[in-house]
Write a structure and sequence with these properties.
With 220 residues, this protein is mostly helical. It is built from five helices and two strands.
Length: 220
């Protein structure tokens, strides 16, 4: 037994394992991760066993009903045979029903043995399916965790770069604004009227300040 199987066995000791293919939540797992060929194979085999188990149980119920009916018919026939002094035809009917009851008993015994075997086969196959399911899910979780970690590191780096660039942007915009203001004060609006047509800091490059707590949002 593999090491993982031993771990799972200890974890499952004394616990009831549901038949996975009959559990809708198990099917929902594979809306989040891919079902492998091995899981598909095990699921098909398990479904076949469960279908056979259901068929045998239905047949067992029907056989028990037939046996009960036959047993109910024998007593009146026996009373008739006693009253008639042992009629051959009645005795034959009793023998026929006795034979059918014995056949029912044989089938019931055979079904009982098969159900015991099926129960073990279903449990073993269900366990294998559970192990394969856990392997796939944990592998997906592991891969996603690595991917999340990589993205988180990238976001952290970008966040640092964004913060630096926001500061550079603010400094450049402030420099432009100050230069423009000083030029207005020194030369006057008439002198730089032509320049005004090409550059307007309030329209083209407004000074933006980051909102508190989020450097990616700005106010003018």
């Amino acid at each position: 037994m593999a090491k993982n199987d031993e771990v799972y066995s200890r974890a499952l000791e004394g616990k009831s394992i549901p038949i996975l293919t009959l559990d809708n939540k198990w099917h929902q797992l594979f809306t989040q991760t891919e079902m492998t060929p091995e899981i598909e194979k095990l699921a098909d085999e398990l479904n076949s066993l469960v279908e056979r188990d259901g068929k045998i149980r239905t047949e067992t119920k029907n056989i028990k009903k037939i046996k009960k009916k036959l047993l109910g018919e024998i007593m009146p026939l026996r009373d008739q045979a006693n009253k008639s002094g042992g009629s051959a035809s009645i005795e034959k009917e009793i023998q026929d029903r006795t034979r059918l009851i014995n056949e029912c008993n044989d089938k019931l015994a055979s079904h009982e043995d098969e159900l015991l075997d099926l129960s073990k086969e279903i449990y073993d196959l269900d366990y294998q399916l559970m192990v394969e399911t856990m392997k796939v899910c944990y592998e997906t979780l592991h891969d996603n965790t690595d991917y999340i970690k990589t993205l988180d590191e990238w976001i952290s780096q970008v966040r640092v770069e964004l913060k630096k660039n926001v500061i550079k942007l603010q400094e450049a915009e402030m420099e432009n604004y100050n230069l423009y203001s000083y030029m207005h004060q020194i030369f006057g609006p008439e002198v730089i009227e032509i320049f005004d047509m090409k550059y307007d800091p309030d329209r083209r490059h407004p000074i933006r300040r980051p909102l508190a707590g989020n450097e990616s949002d700005y106010v003018e």
